[in-house]
Amino acid sequence: MTKKQQKYSKEFKMETLELARSSGKTDSQVERELGLSRGCLYNWRKDVEREGSQAFPGKGRLKADDEYVRGLERELVIVQQEREILKKAGHLHAEPAVKYKFIAAHREEFEITVMCRVLAVSRSGYYAWLKRPTSARKMADQELTQQIKDIHQQSRQTYGSPRIQAELAEQGINCGPKRVARLMRDEKLFAKQKRKFRVITTDSAHNYPVARNLLDQDFSASRPNEKWTTDITYIPTAQGWLYLAVVLDLYSRRIVGWAMSDSLERHLVIAALHMAITGRQPPAGLLHHSDRGSQYASDDYQALLTHHQIQGSMSRKGNCYDNAPTESFFGTLKTELVHHCHYQTQAEAKTDIFEYIEVFYNRVRRHSALHYLSPVNYEKLSLID
């Protein structure tokens, strides 16, 4: 079977360039994380430099940081590390051995020199403590604990013991669930907890026709691009609400389309659907489920579905459970990201959400309903089968 060439929207390209610029990652790192071919970012950046605003939507040019800016950024990193160390090290007045243990446990997160200075211990004392003999079992636990902490950190503190055990198993490390849970308890490592579910019903007071509920809460799918669900959520920023529309494939729970805007107009959901169609090129007969809001019932949106031979389905009035998988994704997004951030600008929120969806959720985050595989890896497995 010939593999279809992946197409990317203008917004995807601009957010990818912004991610590379603001995260400090190399182009090759970003390309690997997003599954892009080598050289994509170079070509996209050249397009922006050559065409300016005509290349992609957005403002400004991407400029390399000079030495002065890099120096300021370095100072900022150290100050941020010092603040985080003070937050986590509640035993500043403890004996040196406890401080050394803290340093050893966080050596991948913070610089050793910075931790020693903040905790008022010498580097030579720390390295001497490291050389002291330890029992084989304790050493094994220490090594495993560090691996667990690394995974927990890489998961943005979202993984509990089942997902961490699955990640360890994939790395070839065999250990029982009780041991993983015990070591996590000892280190006070917990998955972020969801807030109480709160229903926000859709205003369906419009004169557009409403489709029948063909999905009828049957969220199973036997292949990719068989059933899609879609919805809108709200992201608070200091500049006002940012609205996020997503399209989710029920087979893998992958977010196949998304769009963000400061407006709830129908163009938001049309952009998300257009991204999904462009990137996935679904076959005729795909079932598409949404709420009965005016954006989804609008003539423009329905015309796009009809043009691509996509069958529409809509939730019953006021019943959020008819679209539970998309609601669940929004709950996960807010639990693992939004509720822990205070965005000053909508641009800042857009970059964060783009990275969460495309780098973390789609390609890294393990889903319990997918045998603890990420959506992208689950789809790759289906191609092998």
Which class of the largest domain in CATH terms? Alpha Beta
Q: What fraction of residues sit in β-strands?
A: 5-15%
Q: Which CATH architecture of the largest domain is right?
A: 2-Layer Sandwich
Quaternary organization? single chain
- Uncertain runs: 57-66
Q: Can you write the helix and strand succession as a string?
A: HHHHHHHHHHEEEHEHHEHHH
Estimate nothing, just give the exact number of structural domains: 4
Calculate Rg over CA atoms. 24 Å
Question: Would you give the CATH topology of the largest domain?
Answer: Nucleotidyltransferase, domain 5
How many helix segments? Answer: 16
Q: In whole angstroms, how far apart are the ends?
A: 13 Å
Kindly state the mean pLDDT as a whole number?
A: 84
Output the structural class: alpha/beta
CATH homologous superfamily heading of the largest domain: Ribonuclease H-like superfamily/Ribonuclease H
Report the count of strand segments. 5
Question: Which word captures the global form?
Answer: globular
Helical residue percent band:
40-55%
Largest sheet descriptor: 5 strands, mixed
Main sheet: which strands, in order across?
Answer: 3-2-1-4-5
